[in-house]
Amino acid sequence: MDFLDSILNSMQGPPSASEAQKNAMKKQKEALERKQKQERDMINKFRKRVEEKISNFIKDGNTPYLQFEPMDQMYRSIIRDVAETAGVQVFSFGQDGIDRYSIVYLKDKGPSEDELTVRRAGCAWNDAKAAEMAENKVEKAKQAALESEEDKNRKRKRGKEELSGTFYKQKYAHLIGQEAAIDAAQKTNMNKSYGEVPSANKKDQRSIEQTMADIKAKKMKKAETDKGNPEDVQT
Protein backbone atom coordinates (compact mmCIF):
# COMPACT_ATOMS: atom_id res chain seq x y z
CA MET A 1 0.00 0.00 0.00
CA ASP A 2 1.49 3.27 -1.03
CA PHE A 3 1.15 6.66 0.56
CA LEU A 4 -1.88 7.74 -1.58
CA ASP A 5 -3.86 4.63 -0.66
CA SER A 6 -3.25 5.25 2.98
CA ILE A 7 -4.63 8.78 2.67
CA LEU A 8 -7.78 7.63 0.83
CA ASN A 9 -8.44 4.92 3.38
CA SER A 10 -8.12 7.37 6.22
CA MET A 11 -10.81 9.71 4.74
CA GLN A 12 -14.40 9.30 5.96
CA GLY A 13 -17.21 8.70 3.43
CA PRO A 14 -20.41 10.82 3.18
CA PRO A 15 -22.72 10.43 6.12
CA SER A 16 -25.48 7.93 5.44
CA ALA A 17 -29.13 8.96 5.92
CA SER A 18 -30.71 7.70 9.05
CA GLU A 19 -33.81 5.53 9.00
CA ALA A 20 -35.88 8.43 10.30
CA GLN A 21 -34.80 10.67 7.43
CA LYS A 22 -35.53 7.95 4.91
CA ASN A 23 -39.01 7.45 6.30
CA ALA A 24 -39.68 11.21 6.23
CA MET A 25 -38.65 11.49 2.58
CA LYS A 26 -40.79 8.50 1.69
CA LYS A 27 -43.85 9.96 3.39
CA GLN A 28 -43.31 13.32 1.66
CA LYS A 29 -43.17 11.61 -1.72
CA GLU A 30 -46.29 9.59 -1.00
CA ALA A 31 -48.16 12.73 0.11
CA LEU A 32 -47.20 14.52 -3.11
CA GLU A 33 -48.38 11.59 -5.19
CA ARG A 34 -51.69 11.46 -3.31
CA LYS A 35 -52.21 15.19 -3.89
CA GLN A 36 -51.49 14.88 -7.59
CA LYS A 37 -53.90 11.96 -7.84
CA GLN A 38 -56.60 13.96 -6.06
CA GLU A 39 -56.10 16.86 -8.47
CA ARG A 40 -56.35 14.53 -11.47
CA ASP A 41 -59.50 12.95 -10.06
CA MET A 42 -61.02 16.37 -9.40
CA ILE A 43 -60.25 17.55 -12.94
CA ASN A 44 -61.69 14.37 -14.43
CA LYS A 45 -64.86 14.76 -12.36
CA PHE A 46 -65.15 18.40 -13.43
CA ARG A 47 -64.73 17.45 -17.09
CA LYS A 48 -67.45 14.81 -16.77
CA ARG A 49 -69.84 17.34 -15.19
CA VAL A 50 -69.13 19.83 -17.97
CA GLU A 51 -69.65 17.17 -20.63
CA GLU A 52 -72.97 16.21 -19.04
CA LYS A 53 -74.17 19.83 -18.79
CA ILE A 54 -73.24 20.67 -22.37
CA SER A 55 -74.80 17.45 -23.64
CA ASN A 56 -78.10 18.25 -21.88
CA PHE A 57 -77.91 21.83 -23.15
CA ILE A 58 -77.59 20.63 -26.74
CA LYS A 59 -80.41 18.11 -26.36
CA ASP A 60 -82.74 20.75 -24.93
CA GLY A 61 -82.21 23.17 -27.82
CA ASN A 62 -84.49 25.84 -26.32
CA THR A 63 -82.25 27.36 -23.65
CA PRO A 64 -80.53 30.44 -25.13
CA TYR A 65 -77.20 29.79 -23.40
CA LEU A 66 -75.43 27.79 -20.69
CA GLN A 67 -73.57 29.99 -18.21
CA PHE A 68 -70.90 28.70 -15.82
CA GLU A 69 -69.85 30.38 -12.60
CA PRO A 70 -66.58 32.35 -12.42
CA MET A 71 -63.54 30.07 -12.19
CA ASP A 72 -59.81 29.84 -12.84
CA GLN A 73 -58.32 29.72 -16.30
CA MET A 74 -57.52 26.00 -16.02
CA TYR A 75 -61.18 25.09 -15.56
CA ARG A 76 -62.32 27.53 -18.25
CA SER A 77 -59.91 25.84 -20.65
CA ILE A 78 -61.61 22.51 -19.89
CA ILE A 79 -65.01 24.06 -20.66
CA ARG A 80 -63.67 25.43 -23.95
CA ASP A 81 -62.16 22.07 -24.89
CA VAL A 82 -65.39 20.19 -24.17
CA ALA A 83 -67.49 22.82 -25.99
CA GLU A 84 -65.33 22.78 -29.11
CA THR A 85 -65.41 18.98 -29.14
CA ALA A 86 -69.22 19.08 -28.90
CA GLY A 87 -69.45 21.63 -31.74
CA VAL A 88 -70.88 24.57 -29.80
CA GLN A 89 -69.69 28.13 -29.24
CA VAL A 90 -68.08 29.36 -26.04
CA PHE A 91 -67.32 32.92 -24.91
CA SER A 92 -65.64 34.23 -21.76
CA PHE A 93 -66.45 37.53 -20.06
CA GLY A 94 -65.27 39.37 -16.98
CA GLN A 95 -61.90 40.21 -15.48
CA ASP A 96 -59.37 37.40 -15.30
CA GLY A 97 -58.57 36.33 -11.76
CA ILE A 98 -61.64 38.09 -10.36
CA ASP A 99 -64.96 37.27 -12.00
CA ARG A 100 -64.22 35.83 -15.44
CA TYR A 101 -66.78 33.22 -16.50
CA SER A 102 -67.67 31.17 -19.58
CA ILE A 103 -70.94 30.92 -21.52
CA VAL A 104 -71.80 28.23 -24.05
CA TYR A 105 -74.12 28.91 -27.02
CA LEU A 106 -75.51 26.62 -29.67
CA LYS A 107 -73.65 26.73 -32.98
CA ASP A 108 -76.50 28.43 -34.88
CA LYS A 109 -77.75 30.58 -31.98
CA GLY A 110 -74.79 32.67 -30.95
CA PRO A 111 -74.96 35.92 -28.97
CA SER A 112 -76.09 39.12 -30.65
CA GLU A 113 -73.82 42.14 -30.96
CA ASP A 114 -75.88 43.88 -28.28
CA GLU A 115 -75.39 40.99 -25.86
CA LEU A 116 -71.65 40.88 -26.51
CA THR A 117 -71.40 44.63 -25.96
CA VAL A 118 -73.29 44.47 -22.67
CA ARG A 119 -71.42 41.47 -21.28
CA ARG A 120 -68.02 42.84 -22.29
CA ALA A 121 -68.90 46.00 -20.39
CA GLY A 122 -69.37 43.88 -17.27
CA CYS A 123 -73.16 44.14 -17.18
CA ALA A 124 -75.78 41.42 -16.90
CA TRP A 125 -77.77 40.41 -19.96
CA ASN A 126 -81.49 39.73 -19.62
CA ASP A 127 -84.82 40.44 -21.33
CA ALA A 128 -85.06 43.92 -19.82
CA LYS A 129 -81.59 44.82 -21.08
CA ALA A 130 -82.40 43.41 -24.52
CA ALA A 131 -85.56 45.57 -24.70
CA GLU A 132 -83.57 48.62 -23.62
CA MET A 133 -80.94 48.04 -26.30
CA ALA A 134 -83.63 47.54 -28.97
CA GLU A 135 -85.31 50.80 -27.94
CA ASN A 136 -81.99 52.64 -28.11
CA LYS A 137 -81.46 51.32 -31.63
CA VAL A 138 -84.86 52.62 -32.72
CA GLU A 139 -84.13 56.04 -31.23
CA LYS A 140 -80.74 56.18 -32.94
CA ALA A 141 -82.33 55.24 -36.26
CA LYS A 142 -84.93 58.00 -35.86
CA GLN A 143 -82.24 60.52 -34.99
CA ALA A 144 -80.16 59.48 -37.99
CA ALA A 145 -83.18 59.80 -40.29
CA LEU A 146 -83.96 63.25 -38.87
CA GLU A 147 -80.39 64.43 -39.35
CA SER A 148 -80.40 63.07 -42.89
CA GLU A 149 -83.61 64.95 -43.70
CA GLU A 150 -82.21 68.16 -42.20
CA ASP A 151 -79.09 67.75 -44.29
CA LYS A 152 -81.19 67.31 -47.43
CA ASN A 153 -83.17 70.43 -46.58
CA ARG A 154 -79.97 72.43 -46.09
CA LYS A 155 -78.65 71.28 -49.46
CA ARG A 156 -81.99 72.04 -51.11
CA LYS A 157 -82.05 75.51 -49.57
CA ARG A 158 -78.47 76.13 -50.61
CA GLY A 159 -79.32 75.10 -54.17
CA LYS A 160 -82.15 77.62 -54.28
CA GLU A 161 -79.85 80.33 -52.93
CA GLU A 162 -77.30 79.55 -55.61
CA LEU A 163 -79.95 79.92 -58.30
CA SER A 164 -81.21 83.19 -56.85
CA GLY A 165 -77.73 84.64 -56.39
CA THR A 166 -78.09 84.97 -52.62
CA PHE A 167 -75.47 82.30 -52.04
CA TYR A 168 -72.82 84.14 -54.04
CA LYS A 169 -73.71 87.42 -52.37
CA GLN A 170 -73.11 85.87 -48.95
CA LYS A 171 -70.04 83.94 -50.09
CA TYR A 172 -68.10 86.85 -51.58
CA ALA A 173 -69.39 89.75 -49.47
CA HIS A 174 -66.41 89.56 -47.09
CA LEU A 175 -63.97 89.63 -50.04
CA ILE A 176 -65.29 92.30 -52.40
CA GLY A 177 -67.77 94.20 -50.26
CA GLN A 178 -71.49 93.98 -49.82
CA GLU A 179 -72.49 96.22 -52.76
CA ALA A 180 -70.12 94.53 -55.21
CA ALA A 181 -71.33 91.14 -54.06
CA ILE A 182 -74.93 92.16 -54.62
CA ASP A 183 -74.06 93.42 -58.09
CA ALA A 184 -72.23 90.17 -58.91
CA ALA A 185 -75.13 88.15 -57.62
CA GLN A 186 -77.55 90.08 -59.79
CA LYS A 187 -75.42 89.33 -62.84
CA THR A 188 -75.73 85.62 -62.14
CA ASN A 189 -79.52 85.82 -62.54
CA MET A 190 -80.95 84.98 -65.92
CA ASN A 191 -81.64 88.04 -68.06
CA LYS A 192 -85.35 87.94 -68.58
CA SER A 193 -85.57 90.83 -71.05
CA TYR A 194 -83.72 91.65 -74.26
CA GLY A 195 -84.27 95.14 -75.57
CA GLU A 196 -87.77 96.50 -75.09
CA VAL A 197 -89.56 93.20 -75.63
CA PRO A 198 -89.54 90.61 -72.83
CA SER A 199 -87.66 87.47 -73.77
CA ALA A 200 -90.69 85.38 -72.88
CA ASN A 201 -92.60 87.07 -75.73
CA LYS A 202 -89.85 86.20 -78.19
CA LYS A 203 -90.24 82.47 -77.75
CA ASP A 204 -91.86 80.51 -80.56
CA GLN A 205 -95.20 79.40 -79.14
CA ARG A 206 -96.16 77.23 -82.13
CA SER A 207 -96.35 73.46 -81.96
CA ILE A 208 -94.12 71.26 -84.10
CA GLU A 209 -97.04 70.36 -86.40
CA GLN A 210 -97.93 74.02 -86.91
CA THR A 211 -94.32 74.91 -87.59
CA MET A 212 -93.98 72.15 -90.21
CA ALA A 213 -97.24 73.23 -91.86
CA ASP A 214 -96.07 76.85 -92.05
CA ILE A 215 -92.77 75.80 -93.61
CA LYS A 216 -94.59 73.68 -96.20
CA ALA A 217 -96.96 76.53 -97.04
CA LYS A 218 -94.04 78.90 -97.56
CA LYS A 219 -92.37 76.43 -99.91
CA MET A 220 -95.57 75.98 -101.95
CA LYS A 221 -96.08 79.74 -102.16
CA LYS A 222 -92.51 80.22 -103.35
CA ALA A 223 -92.94 77.48 -105.98
CA GLU A 224 -96.12 79.13 -107.33
CA THR A 225 -94.37 82.49 -107.45
CA ASP A 226 -91.45 81.04 -109.38
CA LYS A 227 -93.89 79.33 -111.81
CA GLY A 228 -95.83 82.55 -112.49
CA ASN A 229 -92.63 84.51 -113.31
CA PRO A 230 -90.53 82.23 -115.58
CA GLU A 231 -87.05 83.37 -116.46
CA ASP A 232 -86.36 84.61 -120.02
CA VAL A 233 -84.84 81.94 -122.20
CA GLN A 234 -82.31 83.10 -124.86
CA THR A 235 -82.67 81.62 -128.38
UniProtKB/TrEMBL annotation:
Q: Which Pfam families match?
A: R3H (PF01424)
Gene Ontology molecular-function annotations: nucleic acid binding
Q: Where is this region: Disordered?
A: 1-39, 139-163, 192-235
Stretches of Polar residues bias are at 7-21
Domain (R3H): residue spans on this chain: 44-107
Q: Which InterPro entries match?
A: R3H_dom, R3H_dom_sf, SPAG7
Q: Where is the composition biased (Basic and acidic residues)?
A: 27-39, 222-235
Q: Which residues form a coiled coil?
A: none
- What name does UniProt use for this protein? R3H domain-containing protein
What's the source species for this entry? Pectinophora gossypiella (Cotton pink bollworm)
